[in-house]
């Protein structure tokens, strides 16, 4: 997936980013990865995540890509989004991670 542009003046191209630390002792395994991707798919935005400062950005709407991050407990997940619901999407995903992938 290509890098998101640094800035945009169009509201449909709004950018947002955030981060949260994985609390689950087993890390980002299958069940939380599916919850994360399901929530990402519910938003009208291009959403990417990465594990750690140096991690590779992956499509947050792809369960396979998210699980391949192999993010462990205590690792920071960075989230970035572009599109009409970018801000809403980032806030929702960060909140999900902070809740240890539990429903509200």
From TrEMBL:
Q: Which residues form a coiled coil?
A: none
Show where the HPr domain sits. Answer: 15-104
Q: Please list where the region (Disordered) is annotated.
A: 1-27
Which Pfam families does the protein's record reference?
A: PTS-HPr
Transport among the record's keywords? yes
Tell me the InterPro entries matching this sequence: HPr, HPr-like, HPr-like_sf, PTS_HPr_His_P_site
Sorted UniProt keywords: Sugar transport, Transport
Does the record carry Transport as a key word? yes
State the protein's purpose: General (non sugar-specific) component of the phosphoenolpyruvate-dependent sugar phosphotransferase system (sugar PTS). This major carbohydrate active-transport system catalyzes the phosphorylation of incoming sugar substrates concomitantly with their translocation across the cell membrane. The phosphoryl group from phosphoenolpyruvate (PEP) is transferred to the phosphoryl carrier protein HPr by enzyme I. Phospho-HPr then transfers it to the PTS EIIA domain.
PANTHER family on file: PHOSPHOCARRIER PROTEIN HPR
What protein does this entry describe?
Answer: Phosphocarrier protein HPr
Q: Which organism is it from?
A: Denitrobaculum tricleocarpae
